[in-house]
């Protein structure tokens, strides 16, 4: 398999950081500790001092302001987040660029890899590209009413492939893994053994033994996602009753 590393002449990196304030969970009081000031700024107040109204009037509260490329309030859905902060990056994957979408929260992470191979010029010049997503379950997977970033990314990728004149030259494969207690598991295997990271001369760092399934439709990948999600480790946390681990 060819290398997934971008040629040296194309190694330019653009990092975009977005933050989304989640809705309050049941039992939480809306004390206004976190405030979205505008499309780029977030204000965080000290949790203890924020309870005292008089202290706020006297401007005695401790506060921190954070600036991002994008700041989304709890009323924004996954489509809003995708269109504003991710869609243009996903479109570049079809052109041979590498893209990583990383969603991080307070209660754990999961990883999914999509590898796409295209034949841009000649049989001897095969370019490999991949989209890698990891992060929070709802943001990345979503539901029927509010599809997650994985689902939206898949739809964009397959739409662009179908519109391409050389669509028959694309190969799309899917792998799905989880890191639990610092151990790697293959979520597409019914009883996965512990997998290890290995270094490959052509591909760099790879997960040895990770299953790779060829797919032709986004629905097939969603089927694999659902299968993998059913095998993920979950537990109760203070922030989420069924948090992925």
What does this structure look like?
- It is a single chain.
- Helix content is 21%, strand content 29%.
- The strands form 5 sheets. Strands 6, 7, 8, 9, 10 and 13 form a 6-stranded mixed β-sheet that branches. A 3-stranded antiparallel β-sheet has the order 2-3-4, with no helix packed on it. It has a two-stranded parallel ribbon with strand order 1-5.
- It has 2 domains: 8-15 and 77-244, Kinesin (3-Layer(aba) Sandwich); 24-72, no CATH class.
- The two termini are 31 Å apart.
- A hairpin with a 7-residue loop joins strand 14 (234-235) and strand 15 (243-244).
- Mean pLDDT is 73; it is low at 1-9, 110-129 and 236-243.
- The protein has 6 helices and 15 strands.
- It is an alpha+beta fold and 245 residues long.
- The longest helix is centred in the middle third of the chain and has 15 residues, at 149-163.
- It comes from Cuscuta campestris.
- Belongs to the TRAFAC class myosin-kinesin ATPase superfamily. Kinesin family.
- Residues 14-245 form the Kinesin motor domain.
- One of its GO terms (biological process) is microtubule-based movement.
- It is found in: Plastid.
Helix-strand layout with pairing:
Elements: E1 18-20, E2 34-36, E3 41-45, H1 53-57, E4 63-67, E5 70-72, H2 78-85, H3 87-93, E6 99-102, E7 111-118, E8 127-134, H4 137-140, H5 149-163, E9 171-180, E10 183-186, E11 196-200, E12 204-208, E13 213-215, H6 218-229, E14 234-235, E15 243-244
Parallel strand pairs: 1-5, 6-8
Antiparallel strand pairs: 2-3, 3-4, 7-8, 7-9, 9-10, 9-13, 11-12, 14-15
């Amino acid at each position: 398999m060819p290398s997934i590393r971008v040629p040296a002449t194309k190694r330019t990196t653009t990092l975009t950081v977005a933050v989304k304030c989640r809705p309050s969970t049941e039992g939480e009081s809306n004390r206004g500790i976190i405030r979205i000031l505008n499309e780029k700024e977030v204000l965080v107040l000290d949790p203890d001092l924020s309870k005292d109204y008089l202290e706020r009037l006297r401007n005695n509260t401790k506060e921190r302001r954070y600036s991002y490329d994008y700041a989304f309030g709890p009323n924004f859905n996954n489509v809003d987040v995708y269109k504003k902060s991710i869609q243009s990056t996903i479109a570049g994957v079809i052109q041979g660029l590498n893209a990583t979408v990383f969603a991080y929260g307070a209660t754990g992470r999961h990883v999914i890899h999509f590898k796409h191979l295209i034949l841009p010029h000649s049989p001897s010049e095969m370019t490999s590209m991949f989209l890698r997503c990891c992060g929070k379950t709802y943001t990345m997977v979503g539901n029927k009413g509010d599809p997650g970033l994985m689902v939206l990314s898949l739809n964009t990728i397959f739409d662009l492939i179908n519109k391409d004149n050389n669509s028959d030259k694309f190969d799309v494969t899917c792998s799905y893994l989880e890191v639990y207690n610092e151990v790697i598991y293959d979520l597409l295997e019914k009883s996965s053994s512990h997998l290890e990271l290995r270094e490959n001369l052509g591909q760099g760092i790879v997960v040895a033994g990770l299953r790779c399934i060829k797919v032709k439709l986004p629905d097939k990948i969603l089927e694999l996602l659902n299968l993998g999600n059913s095998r993920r480790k979950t537990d109760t946390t203070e922030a989420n009753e069924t948090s992925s681990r």
